[in-house]
């Protein structure tokens, strides 16, 4: 799933995305925040987005990268060997814990305000590829430069 697809999923049309990201006068302009990082919490809609992309597996499996995974894309750690089955409620609790570092990272990585849709889309993207991969991605590079059109390409 591309970053553009995430923005389409959260309700932007291609024409709308083009106009939004080409104009600094639109409602989605990213104003500078001076002195403190914005708070970035993934909403219920964002959580649902992640759940939809990841799918729910109540037993461990190997993901496409060969990583032992359970629940909504939770990479099993070496200290979790006994985690062999989950209830849907446990999987949701683990997902909520897994997104906390992403929310904190969004607040630190961006010095401008993100809309809720942008937080949700970026949070889903970061969850999918991992924080370190995101920090090396062209999406992050272009967003830091506020080159929104290139970030979406």
Description:
- With about 150 residues, this protein is mainly alpha-helical.
- It is about 50% helix and about 10% strand.
- The chain has eight helices and three strands.
- The protein has a three-stranded antiparallel sheet with strand order 1-2-3.
- Helix 1 packs across helix 5, helix 3 runs parallel beside helix 5 and helix 4 crosses helix 5.
Summarize the entry for a quick read:
The chain is mainly alpha-helical and 153 residues long. The protein has helices at 3-9, 14-22, 44-54, 88-109, 116-129, 131-135, 138-144, 148-151, and strands spanning 57-62, 68-71, 74-75.
Query: Mind summarizing the main beta sheet?
Result: 3 strands, antiparallel
Q: Determine the number of helices (DSSP H or I, runs of at least 4 residues).
A: 8
Our estimate of the beta-strand percent is 5-15%
Radius of gyration: 16 Å
What's the SSE pattern? HHHEEEHHHHH
Helix content: 40-55%
Spans of at least 5 consecutive residues whose pLDDT stays below 50 are: 1-38
β-strand number: 3
Structural class: mainly alpha
What's the N-to-C terminus distance? 12 Å
Shape: elongated
- Name the strands of the widest sheet in spatial order: 1-2-3
């Amino acid at each position: 799933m591309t970053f553009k697809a995430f923005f389409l999923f959260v309700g932007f049309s291609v024409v709308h995305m083009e106009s939004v990201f080409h104009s600094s006068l639109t409602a989605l302009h990213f104003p500078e925040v001076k002195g403190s990082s914005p708070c970035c919490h993934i909403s219920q809609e964002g959580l649902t987005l992640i759940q939809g992309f990841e799918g729910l597996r109540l037993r461990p499996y190997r993901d496409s990268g060969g990583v032992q995974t359970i629940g909504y894309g939770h990479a099993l750690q070496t200290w979790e060997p006994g985690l062999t089955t989950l209830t849907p409620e446990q999987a949701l609790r683990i997902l909520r814990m897994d997104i906390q570092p992403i929310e904190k990272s969004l607040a630190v990585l961006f010095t401008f305000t993100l809309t809720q849709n942008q937080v949700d889309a970026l949070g889903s993207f970061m969850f999918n590829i991992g924080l370190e991969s995101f920090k090396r991605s062209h999406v992050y590079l272009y967003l830091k430069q506020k080159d929104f059109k290139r970030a979406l390409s």
